[in-house]
């Protein structure tokens, strides 16, 4: 969480810092700030809330420095107030930080005893005073940072500038991503290449434990042992047009509508269209002897993993365990020999997922990851990267990344099935054909949003909403509930339809809408029985199905019609209505759809 940026420029940098922060706002938007070196002194502007507040502050009281750092915050330690906003600074040192300093209390007490005065409640301010203390003692900023870093426990990406040093910025990375951008007589620093896209496409990614000393003419990098090291620069693919909503009101709407195209791209990556077969990268493991697939992820990516379990177990006949990364990382389960560990993440930077990846690596698992950001930490630490080609996802609520993860998982299930001899060539062709029809069906589904606008009116009045699904559609019920609560703030829960009678049915009355994901797939009759149990208790039913509304055998609040398609592809198709229900409800309620309260796009702290 939190986005950081730094520029050693040739003209006043405050405008460019804010521009870069706008691209990083997906990492947090509780407060923002910048600091620059101006006439040898540090100057700072900060503001609570969205970036526009900071812009206004800078317009009223500009900063003119050519060297500066900036930060957009997702609060961990201390409320999202201006006092707690970054950059934090002393008279000599200013710091932006992404991550958590775990020993900040001990450092703070120690530094207070040495006479340092703290203004904020943050962990970051301890870093500022620690570096200042070392700077006062050693007189050299680089030596000061080198001495301070080993004293920090926890995760961090840091950008540091110094009073009296206009041509210097120091960066350090442990556990949180950080990229250096190379410009003409200018250098840049950012949490990711997207932030730096308007300035440069030549990017060096810092490795775990690196510290970099940036000056306008280049960067010196030191590894975790303090030894000078060369890290190659790569051409970044990040486009400078990324923050464009096109004709859409929100990024989320744009990203929902992009799904036919990006799912096509992702499928084209894994499928030989001409042959109608899966064309999957070598996973580097004996698939016929594969003992288990262990999937770990968070949030929506975890739900994609649950869908993957149904597909892989059914078509490849191999056991699949799926776990939320925050639980698995501390449970440290035993893992079998010849096991494949699969990590799913849009950002590729989710701290818990990365921690489980490292555990699985220690346990000798083959590491594969389904990621959207090819240059991310999870991708770089994987043996095999299965990229989703969703393009940058800016809306905090994941939509197109989820369906692209499903496209990759469906292809993986077929690739495993073929390698293990559990599906025939005919079945593979039939399922591939079904997958290739998905973009067309989704294009049809997003073409008419009127039913969702109408439904939003009813759902907006609800305090609680239940989602039900059975079999492979159960994870869709979980995903629907997550989408609705994160952007509309309506309390929602997803349940396996068969679990209804084991407790949740007690919640049903005429004020509780129940959204049922029920394609006609062989299990739908059982789900219909559950629908009737809800109806008998006055519950208001929204049925999402490819069948006729009267198949429910009761009155419905709404029926969302999904095109007939191969049942194998249902999770991809049924993801669309649950996204559109959440989107239109949130729009109707006037919430901040792309940047819902308390959330951030990339969860880089545990
Ligand atoms: O970047 P990741 O896919 O690892 O992120 C995982 C979750 O944080 C993410 O899916 C989150 O649940 C979304 N806000 C859901 O819409």
Description:
The mean pLDDT is 93. The N and C termini lie close together (10 Å). The strands form 5 sheets. The protein has an 8-stranded antiparallel β-sheet with strand order 3-2-4-1-10-9-11-15. A 7-stranded antiparallel β-sheet has the order 5-6-7-8-12-13-14, covered by helices on one side. A 5-stranded parallel β-sheet has the order 19-18-20-21-22, sandwiched between helices. The protein is globular. The longest helix has 22 residues, at 425-446. Strand 18 (292-297), helix 9 and strand 19 form a beta-alpha-beta unit. It has 18 helices and 27 strands. It folds into 3 domains: 3-247, Glutamine Phosphoribosylpyrophosphate, subunit 1, domain 1; 254-436, Glucose-6-phosphate isomerase like protein, domain 1 (Rossmann fold, 3-Layer(aba) Sandwich); 448-589, Rossmann fold (3-Layer(aba) Sandwich), CATH 3.40.50. Bound molecules: 5-amino-5-deoxy-1-O-phosphono-D-mannitol (M6R). 5-amino-5-deoxy-1-O-phosphono-D-mannitol (M6R) binds next to helix 9 and helix 16.
Topology of this structure?
Blueprint (H helix, E strand, L loop, with lengths): L2 E6 L5 H11 L6 E8 L2 E8 L2 H10 L6 E7 L14 E2 L3 E9 L2 H10 L10 H15 L2 H8 L5 E9 L2 E10 L4 E4 L4 E4 L2 H4 L5 E4 L5 E5 L2 E5 L5 E2 L4 E2 L15 H7 L1 H12 E2 L4 E2 L13 E6 L1 H18 L3 E5 H7 L7 E7 L5 H12 L3 E6 L5 H4 L3 E4 L12 H21 L4 H22 L3 H10 L4 E6 L4 H15 L2 E6 L16 E5 L6 H13 L3 E6 L12 E4 L8 H20 L17
Parallel strand pairs: 18-19, 18-20, 20-21, 21-22, 23-24, 23-25, 25-26, 26-27
Antiparallel strand pairs: 1-4, 1-10, 2-3, 2-4, 5-6, 6-7, 7-8, 8-12, 9-10, 9-11, 11-15, 12-13, 13-14, 16-17
Bound molecules: 5-amino-5-deoxy-1-O-phosphono-D-mannitol.
The site of 5-amino-5-deoxy-1-O-phosphono-D-mannitol has 16 residues, from helix 9 and helix 16.
